[in-house]
Amino acid sequence: MTVAGSIGILVIIAVILALGIPLGGYLYRVFSGTGSRLDAVYRPLERLVYRAVGVDASVEMSWKAYLRTLMLVNFVMMVFAYLVFRLQGRLPLNPDHVPAMPWALAFNTAASFITNTNWQNYSGEQSLSYLSQMIAITYLQFTSAATGVVAAIAFLRSISAKRSDSLGNFWVDFIKIHTRLLIPLAVVFALVLVGYGVPQTLQGHQVAHTLSGAVQVISRGPVASLEAIKQLGTNGGGYFNANSAHPFEDPSAWTTVLEMIAMGLIPCALVWTFGRFIGNRKQAAVLYVFLTAVLVVGAFVIYANETRGNPILAHALGIHGVNMEGKEVRFGPALSSAFAAITTAFTTGAVNSMHDSLMPMGGFIPMLFMMFNLVFGGDGAGLLNILMFLIITVFLSGLMVGRTPEIFGKKIEAREIKLATVAMLVHPFIILAPTAITLTTQLGKSMLLNPGLHGLSEVLYAYTSGAANNGSAFAGLSGNNVFFNLTEGLVMLFGRYISIIAMFAIAGSLAKKASIPASSGTLRTDTFAFGGVFVAVFVIVGALTFFPALAIGPIGEQLQMWASLGH
Amino acid sequence: MAKNSNTLTPDILRRAVWESFTKLDPRVMVRNPVMFVVEIGFVITLLLTIDQNLFGGHYSAGQRGYNAIVTVILLVTVLFGNFAEAVAEGRGKAQAESLRRTKTDLYANRKRADGTYEQVPATTLHKGDIVRVEAGEMIPADGEVIEGLGSVDESAITGESAPVIRGAGGDFSSVTGGTKLLSDELVIRITVDPGESFLDKMIGLVEGASRQKTPNELALSVLLAGLTLIFLIVIVTLEPMARYVGKPIDVATLIALLVCLIPTTIGALLSAIGIAGMDRVIRFNVIAKSGKAVEAAGDVNTLILDKTGTITIGNRLASEFVPVGGHGAQEVTEIAAISSLFDETPEGRSVIDLAKQKGIAFAREDYLQAENVEFSADTRMSGLNLPNGTIIRKGAVDAIQQFVADQGGSIPADLGEQTERIAKEGGTPLAVVKGTEIYGLIYLKDIVKPGMRERFEELRRMGIKTVMCTGDNPLTAATIAREAGVDDFIAEAKPQDKIRLIQSEQEQGKLVAMSGDGTNDAPALAQADVGLAMNTGTTSAKEAGNMIDLDSDPTKLIEVVSIGKQLLITRGAITTFSIANDVAKYFAIIPAIFLTMIPSLQSLNIMHLHSPRSAILSALIFNAIIIPLLIPLAMRGVKYRPMGATSMLIRNLLIYGLGGVVAPFVGIKLIDLLLATASHL
Amino acid sequence: MVNFWRSIRFTMIFAILLGLIYPLVITGIGELLFPYQAQGSMVKVRGQVVGSMLIAQPVTNPGLFHPRPSAVNYAANGSGGSNLGPTNPALVKEVRNNLQTVLQQNPGVSPSQVPPDMVESSGSGLDPDISVQDALLQIPRIARATGLSQAYLQGLVRQYEQHPTLGIWGTPMVNVMQLNLVIERRLGKG
Q1: Hey, are the CB atoms on A329 and C58 less than 8 Å from each other?
Q2: Range of the domain at A238
Q3: Cβ pairs A/C, distance under 8 A
């Protein structure tokens, strides 16, 4: 670890936090109906879109109507993407003549992108046409992020609502997320990326005659437009197999810093938006502080482990220094570590180094962050998870101070706890059950690249990544078979929608409740004491659930490694 | 109800031990999912003790002994849980039994249609029957006195030995079955059907028969069931993972790990905490009609209290004699004292007392020939007619003014001024007149009960707003409110004002508690989230409230609030403790399980436990033993101190959260040392 | 049902807007403003594309700088890393092979001098950069093969060394293609 490297990591995180505040305020103004200066520009434009889609913007939806519409449009888009993948061989914009995807892989990929996961059981440069990259992948990278954000916004409305049934209009929110947030940001960011060297072209691959006289086929395409929304939308699915480690996706230290900022921007902003919605900026500040602390600790655990390097190589071959296996020189250990932490904290899933080759405790942190799934978390989904754990924390600490728990003035009763428990339960279930099944089958075991405990980590990481809708991988796992395509596809769908459904049901019942004014007997949730309890609850519940698996995964591997070297 | 019931008699304990076994019935256990899982685990390990290879595998003979030990510990764990519940219920049962004894063998003299009386068993009485009760007899059922006046010993229900007066008409006409008439004769109209009497309800309540889970308990049960399910998944999936890394885990160990991880401590004690909470309320001589009411009391935001009898001692006392119209202080004191000579009301007595303090000497005997004029609502004054024809009166100022004017007397110029001054200061002025001349005023003052200020201060710290209700005028009300330190008041309150206040508070999402006794309080008692009815009150008030105070002390509301909070805190504290325990158990068991496969996991064995098996057994034994150790805490409740929510959170977290992490490290290590020593011997 | 049709209309309209118009607009503006970058930073020598500045290519010539080891053999249409875990014996084997190659090609270099990036595979398999230490160790070999002086080559490395952005982001490094183009030009081939 170097001082410069450490400062570098801290500065990135500080910039994300700083940018989140104004953006969070902007989102609040857009969705609370407070009005913003840009209304005059956007209103006529949006009215046009409403008319085209056939939306009546004045309709208010109950939680059920809102949720039903959200699910329906997600379903239709997923079918659309599936069809594009199946038919890409016969569709235009396919200069490299990529054939159609097999059905199981097409299902997995459609599920992966509709859920904001972006797990890739294919390698982009070989399995997707330009059309697929654009009209299926890039498209869903917008809409899946938008789905997460509107779900979070709808929930925030329920907290600030007073005995009301309405959560707003799904279509209006969904379209506004695109017009007012994602499209403008993506356009700007994509052009910046092109300027820094990310290709954006519809010409086919380039055949190069190398300096050594060989022939090299260089894949390229409309990369920058995808790359921009891939990060802003906490999607993570890259254009190329190597994702952001590929020099075309992330050509320099500067671009990787920008990409990290892009990943963190919206999730951070939403935490601030949350504070604005409940009229309590201190609440957002407390969450900022504690989540950032977790993020920073995680980033530095990775950084420390990666810079210390691989003791086995040092011992066997005398290679000392940073673990550079799977890393790129232009990023070095600091930016690779920061990226690994940020991509899993914000559950994006882009990688600028190969996580499978991280040191055991270096790979442990990304896994842990995905198991938490709320260290800011992905666009919208992260905030929903934060709120879910806040409800559980409020319940436990409410009991500790002798009051029926209430959050933001709304009473937490059996119904809310039941739903939050369901949302909480899903996560370990869809991670551990398929991991266990995979490890008992011959087929499952044949998917592993690495032996021993690291092999277990590969499977555990895969389903954790799917459940958390992250998409990064211990990529040694070769999962392109029907069994894995289906199980991982289902894990991604369950991981996404069950918690969204549960949270909407909670939103529905919170919206109906009267808001109780705070008194000195009210347990304040915007204090540092409460923030500490919140972290303790999600760490203990998260860690307790996964501790046995982690003990025979990365923790065991780390201990074995030390033991083999006589520590 | 016996007040000395807070000790556990050997009888209760003996019965609790027996019930620990009868409660093993799966049909009973299934209501508590956490402990039901433990029971299923017990059955499985029992089968594995009989045949250690039941689920495959080739285990050595040593496995059977280990399975047997695990089986025993699991059984003990379940029994401990059942015992906790049985002990909590036991106390109520003992009380119920003594109540039931009161109830049986009661006979009643029922009026026949022809007006004669017949003797029938009390259990056959129905609503509307008329019965006659004579001195020395028990009142056969709940009812309304329609004739007569008598003193009743209600100690069987209230524990209060001083008899109370019951009579026809008014707010003191309701009598309770099972109480004893000491004097006179009463004719009573029965107001309940068999099985619905107050006594029946009380028996049901203390027995826990009608106990339903409170909303909060329900929410916690859901969370605990969820956690249990999560750990079930963890354990079930751990087996194939362990098999993959080459170290299959035997079923008994998996079950041991599962039982250690699921929240058995709180699962075992949850219902005991609830029952004990109700029990604590009962020991305060308050009957809560449901656990929900107790819990709601812990949540109350606003407390509505009547001024008279609750905040102030029921009666106003004379505090000053104010002369008017140029009369001397001596004169007015004397006249006031004479006017009150035969006034037996507390107000009257206080006038005499004050006069004596002022050094006025007089003898009651001097006035024995005088004619006593009682207070009446019509004249609103009382006093004496002396044998010489002199009329002495005291009474409401306007009534006296009228009286003097009628007789042609004049009104002193400074009377109005002084009257206003007293009213402004929160007092009640009474004018005294001799003949046609007004001598002065008696300043009657409301006396705030000692300690009330501190209690309201305490409530404020809990975040509870207090509102005083009084029929006084706003000026008087404001003064007393200030003196007592309540947050708000309603003056000249009519019953519907109370309801309106409750509704407007509830509209804002607040919970409201109030106490009341009169029939006109009934709607407000029903509307309030916590309605504490006085046992001396009317039947309709008692039916409308969800708690009944047998001592009829309205200030009990404050204690009930504390008990409600305590109930919640106890639940929260033990839940936190239970979950925090898991950290240490993991550190004991995980290294033990995988030690042979991954020797380096030994470094996670930070407790340096003796051997893998002793580690697992120690954790399991700790898990079982902690249940009975916490029974006293569950029964007594966590100590509640009024303080800000955040500081209380920190305090309780340090004790039960941090304590929950540390305690098992120590406990498991100790048990492990014992086991290691025992195995050496 | 209304919402079903709306969903289909939305899907179609936004697929066109976000899936076609957006990337095409970026392509148009990108080609206009940054034609070189938008095409993939291709390097032409005498009119012929010899590779991309950003993509490592296999170099066998001892007279040129060699890029980092690639798990995919520099396949620019199939990027990827080795994905070998840190405790996998195959990792030791792979690094041992790479080390042997380095030691063979660069006689006089001892294992303890070798920086990890020189023998450990990159994440993309196409890492265009090498650490300065890596470059310096290759200089004696290149000097022998080309006849260029070591001092010249060292100067070259210093000249083209890229420093961390703002002093905090990245590591000191050199771009292999950049150095090799200079060498080729110097030798009259470029």
Answers
A1: no
A2: 3-564
A3: 387
